Amino acid sequence: MEQKEMIVFYSIIITSLLTKVIIGVKGSDNWEEHNGKLYAVLKDQQGAIKETWEKAVVMCDKEDAILFSPTVHMNIWNIDFLRRNGIKNGWIGINDKCIEGNWIWADGSPVYKTDMNWGKNQPDNDKGMENCGHLHQNSAWNDLPCNEQSVKLPVICQKYCRPGPADILFIVDTSTSTEGRLNRTIEIMTYIVKRLPIGSEDFQIALMKYNYHPSLVFNFVEYKSVQSVTSAFHEIHISNGPTNTVCVRNTEADIIVLLDVQKNQSSFGFQYRKTAIRKLLEGLYNDNPNVQIGMVAYSDHADYVFKLSWSNNVHSRIAAAFQVELDKVSVESNLSHTLQFVGVDAFRSSNGGRPLARKIVMIFSSLFTGYSVEIRDQILNLNQLDIEVLGVAKYHNEPISTNYTEILLDTSQLLVIPKESHTDPFDCLKAVSGMTSYYVCNDSVFQLYP
Known about the structure:
alpha/beta; Rossmann fold; Mannose-Binding Protein A, Chain A; 3 domains; 6-stranded mixed beta sheet; 4-stranded mixed beta sheet; 11 helices; globular; vWFA_dom_sf; C-type lectin domain-containing protein; C-type_lectin-like/link_sf
């Protein structure tokens, strides 16, 4: 079994829970990850399995997956995926069986026109019998009969990546200074655990409490079920005495926002990114008064909009951000140079940088240039300086999301504003507020229980 990652929570504010180990689907060993989802062509000893659309849906369901649901934004990847798997076409999870022309995905959600990729003169519903979709080797869509035995195509399934396995250690402050808040901490830990598969091959949970002296409440192998773990959380109680300075809460955070202003991007997308920045600033200053924010606009060169040391009035900063306009001249953005500039200058004490503050860079960009060794190298350099780099992508633009995941050090560093949300679509940016409040622990806390 592969070595498990150790994830440690120092605070009740949980910002992310992502691991780099992906569990494969039973019965299939050829799953491929792309933008947070897994894809596979179902195969047997003879190669790709070919079935009717109806049977393909059932086969994917048995794999705890759905039928392949590509969009027009995935065309380049789709073509390469079919080629890598030695197939020229395959079923996709769309149909209009209920209402002719009203195409829906296999899960019942509507297929938006902006996601469609129909071939020329398609769909044509030939002979009134074609109500299910398939994909050609050029990624164009076509409609075919759903359950005609003479029409069988390769079965392609997709599912969301499943995180794990991982060992999670909760460290809880039980000193008298937390009295009145311990129950809330237990509620949050319970909420997290109830959404995880618990077991030796999945997630294992341990709990440590501390006030003046740390102690282990239970280890990783003591409890093997969700019920037993969550019940054990109630074994912790407030203890007499102050919190030991082995773990100290820090709320200082210096954040630099990078806004791409190169001319060759849509005006709508640019305004959308400025709205996202406004939401970010409002949320950060509301959640943590100890945060400082600077902003840099860049194309082929970088210019300060405002530095960390500028006025902490959020309305003034938002007004300055909205005064930024696209370049008048068409030039290519130089993100690698901008990242280098930020690493050298933006966090200097003369510009308001604080030596003990958590340092974060957030990229708001159309990112048309795609993967670049230079950009990746600069992000690695910033990481070595303890400067975290996050990317923000707008919901429907898959190429931008793909480009981000190629340059960022981990997919958890990409914040995607969803296309649809029952609440504010910019709520994903609240994760940044969680990152600004954290605990710094002395190394001795980990030496107690090797």
